[in-house]
Amino acid sequence: MTVDAEGITLIGIVVPVLNEAALLPRALDAIAAARQEFERESMCRVRLVIVDDGSTDDSARIARSRPDVEVIASRHRGVGSARAAGAAHLLAGARPTQTWIASTDGDSAVPAEWLSVHHAAATSGAEVLVGQIEPDPADLTPRQLRRWRSLNPPTTEPVYIHGANLGIRGDVYLRSGGFQAASSDEDVLLVDALRHQGSRIRGTDQAPVLTSGRVRGRAPDGFARYVREELG
């Protein structure tokens, strides 16, 4: 077992969930696999917070049935408020300078190395990590998938911002004002605020997160709208 670089002692994973009973088991399985992979190599503690954003299906029950999962309810409907509630829950009683908030979604599946990639960035000077996503090929036609890849090539520049693959150190998050109470683009708004305050933002093409390519999503102007309007 290696000893962690000085600084980050906790990675907190925040997952907002709204009626994701069909896809949430896949998301939880993927996070569990990533935790297992990471914890074999690191002494850093990991917490997973599922934020139920008013689900009317079995999402909350599914989350509560899993070990080592903290389930809270968002007081205000909307993905921005849900992510903010999860971050606040993680940071309560924690040391913000030693906490890394890793954000993903209930319709997504992180790869096994996801936590290791975030941790490596956090302990090597990054204050923010902007990761990439990959739509589930099962949800797209071959033409749509080709168009996605032409519009979103792998890059180490922090240009494609997705709440499904975003990390930020706790103290930097708090200084930025955190996730806004927006129904969509809360991830973009946060990174814009972080850029404005001069945060050290790093992009990565490692560990892209598999994300649903559905055309009817939970956020009105979220990724589903992009799939519907930009990929045809």
Automatic annotation (TrEMBL):
Subcellular location(s): the record lists: Cell membrane
Give a yes or no for keyword Nucleotide-binding in this entry: no
UniProt keyword terms in alphabetical order: Cell membrane, Glycosyltransferase, Membrane, Transferase
Task: State any GO CC term.
Answer: plasma membrane
Q: Where is this protein chiefly located?
A: membrane
* Family indicated by similarity: Belongs to the glycosyltransferase 2 family. CrtQ subfamily.
Location of the Glycosyltransferase 2-like domain: 13-155
One GO molecular-function annotation for this sequence? glycosyltransferase activity
Query: Could you tell me what this protein does?
Result: Catalyzes the glycosylation of 4,4'-diaponeurosporenoate, i.e. the esterification of glucose at the C1'' position with the carboxyl group of 4,4'-diaponeurosporenic acid, to form glycosyl-4,4'-diaponeurosporenoate. This is a step in the biosynthesis of staphyloxanthin, an orange pigment present in most staphylococci strains.
A Pfam family hit: Glycos_transf_2
The pathway entry for this protein reads as: Carotenoid biosynthesis; staphyloxanthin biosynthesis; staphyloxanthin from farnesyl diphosphate: step 4/5
Asked whether the UniProt record includes Lipid metabolism among its keywords, one would answer: no
Please state what the protein is called. 4,4'-diaponeurosporenoate glycosyltransferase
Domain of life assignment: Bacteria
